[in-house]
Design goal:
CATH topology of the largest domain in chain B: Rossmann fold
Number of helices of chain A: 15
Number of helices of chain B: 8
Distance between the termini of chain A: 36 Å
InterPro entries (chain B): HprK-rel_A (IPR027600), P-loop_NTPase (IPR027417), Sigma_54_int_dom_ATP-bd_1 (IPR025662)
Shape of chain A: globular
Order of helices and strands of chain B: EEHEEEHEEHEEEEHEEHEEHHEH
CATH architecture of chain A: 2-Layer Sandwich
Oligomer: heterodimer
Helix content of chain B: 25-40%
CATH architecture of the largest domain in chain B: 3-Layer(aba) Sandwich
Structural class of chain A: alpha/beta
Strand order of the largest sheet of chain A: 3-4-5-2-1-7-6
Organism (chain B): Sphingomonas taxi
Order of helices and strands of chain A: HHHHEHEHEHEEHEEHHHHHHH
Strand content of chain A: 5-15%
CATH class of the largest domain in chain B: Alpha Beta
Largest sheet of chain A: 7 strands, mixed
Largest sheet of chain B: 8 strands, mixed
CATH topology of chain A: Beta Polymerase, domain 2
GO molecular function (chain B): kinase activity
Shape of chain B: globular
Distance between the termini of chain B: 50 Å
Number of strands of chain B: 16
Keywords (chain B): Kinase, Transferase
Number of domains of chain A: 1
Protein name (chain B): Serine kinase
Largest interface: A-B, 22 and 21 residues
Chain lengths: 329, 284
């Protein structure tokens, strides 16, 4: 059955696309993986069928509007938090576009993710509430769970602009077995000269790998892996491997290097050019999308969903969590 | 997907896939005079809510490139409605080439008349009645404004008639081809009418917007002028992608309201509405 390999190939090597490509399948897969804008920039300037070129031009225009909206949202957060004087570090998509990185080209950006010092959390929360952000999750169990165990505040949404903000104080849940060094992330952050900062290039790569492989069920994983490919293209991967060891994320970064090399022919150290045990299953999950945009391989998906919970919580806690969710939920 | 149908309606191409044959057959029959797109802009899926719901009490989940989480599943008997809703949804949520206004549109002498208002204001009925009196039917759902030219592009999909409007439209166009009567839908009775040959034949011909009308059904006949500022606010509400288009949307909309006279029309019935529309059109 057709899977998202057609999309991975198109991103990695746009020149290889034949004119008789299954364009509708490619476009539909890219849309479903939120990579249509990225694809549109990758194919920009190539000789394409007229309708394809038109559709991709629309996607580039949409991505450009999305980029502007994301930067504006970051600026709104900066204004709200400026009086606190604490560091505000942009993460993920907004960071990529704010820093002008390759990973930001055409990238779809949903929520605004920021990292602040844990000691400033209360003040940050109060300042955001005062500036028009509101709670999304009214459920007291969820709220308490976030506050006690997660690496971020419960999500807030702005009442006028309808945009979500995720306020992180570190990059993995507190319940995870890995505890990255949040203070080091903040200490190495690079100011943008706008009152905002982004992680150092090495930490960005480590965070992307952590987000992809140590947190969550790999939903949207292809996009996250493409981010990693672009980050390596911009800054290489040497430094990131050193930083990964300091954060306890060497396994995740190594897997990221192997999989980007396999899927996107990313230039990585020769030691990461062959797949390791388990990698094939990750590839199966990353590409689990057909040419109608449908999720496929339900068993693989379920396995990664279960794994995501296993990673996040020790067994006893997971049992308590599931019990609470079942009882009230 | 098992069953596939593609169609181009004005400038927008769709690919519809279905787990069942019946909705595809209905689309094929009713869109028989429409062309196929080279590259569909959007993909729509009509899929069973669970694998066994393909056969047992079949239940259609509307899916595609863009989805609304709260969209309720529909029974297979309403498959045509599901397909139409799904196609509209893709355009509403994903369309970026044009500023999309939730409006019906008819044309005369190269000039377009846009009718906009909330669901139930009578857009579909009025557009059908006007088309039966010599206007060219362009759309009963979306006016597609090209931000570069300011022109309205046709989107003459099947006309979605609801409840009392069904009989009124059939009376105006007794020879029109119709889809099955769908009863008990979330919006009551629905029946689809195929736009006339003129509408389909000229679906690649845009027109310059000449007048904006805000009809309101169920009131004593009254016509009043509407200022561009009020039009602007009304149309930001009536657009599904105004915000997403950013500056292009703002520019297109300000140009439209500045150059197009607008009127609000309260009307008690179809005949009165037609007379009011014709009267206000003569003031152009």
């Amino acid at each position: 059955m057709a899977d998202a390999l057609i999309l991975a190939r198109a991103l990695a090597d746009p020149q290889s696309l034949a004119l008789d490509t299954d364009w509708i399948g490619l476009v539909t897969t890219a849309r479903a993986e939120q990579l249509l804008g990225t694809l549109a920039y990758r194919l920009d300037g190539l000789p394409l069928p007229e309708d394809v070129a038109l559709l991709l031009a629309d996607a580039r225009a949409a991505a450009e509007n999305g980029r502007r909206a994301a930067l504006w949202e970051a600026e709104m957060a900066r204004r709200a938090l400026a009086p606190l004087g604490c560091a505000v570090v942009l993460l993920k998509g907004t960071a990529f576009v704010a820093a002008g990185l390759l990973a930001g080209r055409g990238r779809s950006i949903g929520d605004l993710d920021i990292l602040v010092p844990r000691g400033s959390l209360d003040a940050v929360e109060a300042a955001l509430l005062a500036a028009g952000w509101e709670w999304v999750k009214p459920d007291p169990y969820d709220d308490a769970y976030y506050r006690r165990w997660m690496h971020e505040l419960p999500p807030l949404i702005h009442r006028d602009r309808d945009r979500m903000i995720d306020v992180h104080h570190t990059i993995l849940p507190l319940t995870a077995r890995i505890t990255p060094d949040a203070a080091a992330l903040l200490a190495q952050a690079q100011p943008l000269g706008t009152g905002l900062a982004v992680l150092s290039p090495d930490d960005m790569l480590v965070h992307a790998a952590a987000h992809l492989f140590a947190d969550g069920d790999l939903a949207g994983g292809l996009r996250n892996l493409w981010d990693i490919h672009c980050l390596i293209d911009d800054h290489g991967s040497e430094g990131a491997r050193v930083r990964a060891a300091e954060h306890g994320l060497s396994r995740e970064v190594a897997r990221a290097l192997r999989l980007t090399h396999r899927l996107f022919a990313t230039p990585v150290d020769p030691a990461y050019r062959t797949l390791a045990r388990g990698d094939a299953l990750y590839l199966r999950r990353l590409l689990a999308r057909d040419d109608w945009g449908r999720p496929i391989r339900p068993a693989t998906r379920l396995a990664f969903y279960v794994r995501s919970h296993w990673l996040r919580m020790p067994p006893a806690m997971l049992a308590r969590h599931l019990w609470a969710k079942w009882r009230w939920g | 997907m098992r069953h596939v149908f593609t169609v181009r309606i004005g400038p927008i191409g769709f690919r519809v896939g279905s787990d069942w044959r019946a909705p595809i057959d209905a689309l094929r029959e009713l869109y028989r005079y429409y062309p196929s797109p080279n590259l569909p802009d959007f993909t729509v899926r009509l899929e069973a809510t669970h694998w066994w719901r393909r056969w047992l009490r079949p239940s259609i989940r509307i899916a595609g490139d863009y989805m609304l989480p709260e969209a309720a599943p529909l029974p297979l008997a309403q498959g045509l409605l599901a397909a139409e809703m799904a196609m509209n949804l893709q355009l509403a949520l994903g369309g970026r080439r044009y500023l999309l206004l939730h409006a019906a549109c008819v044309e005369r002498d190269g000039q377009a008349l846009l009718l906009t208002g909330e669901s139930g204001a009578g857009k579909s009925t009025l557009a059908t009645l006007l088309a039966a009196r010599g206007w060219r039917f362009m759309s009963d759902e979306f006016a597609l404004i090209d931000p570069e030219t300011g022109l309205v592009h046709p989107f003459p999909r099947l006309i979605s008639l609801k409840n009392a409007a069904i009989a009124a439209a059939i009376a105006a166009r007794p020879d029109a081809k119709l889809g099955p009567l769908l009863t008990g839908t979330p919006k009551g009775d629905i029946r689809h009418m195929v736009p006339d040959a003129l509408a389909v034949g000229a679906m690649d011909e845009p027109a310059a917007p000449a007048m904006l009308l805000y009809p309101r059904h169920g009131f004593a006949a009254e016509t009043r002028g509407v200022l561009p500022s009020e039009s602007f606010v009304r149309l930001t509400q009536a657009s599904t992608n105004y915000v997403a288009l950013g500056q292009a949307g703002f520019d297109a909309l300000t140009r439209l309201v500045r150059t197009t006279p607008a009127h609000a029309i309260d009307y008690p019935d179809g005949a009165a509405a037609i007379a009011q529309v014709e009267a206000v059109w003569r003031t152009l």
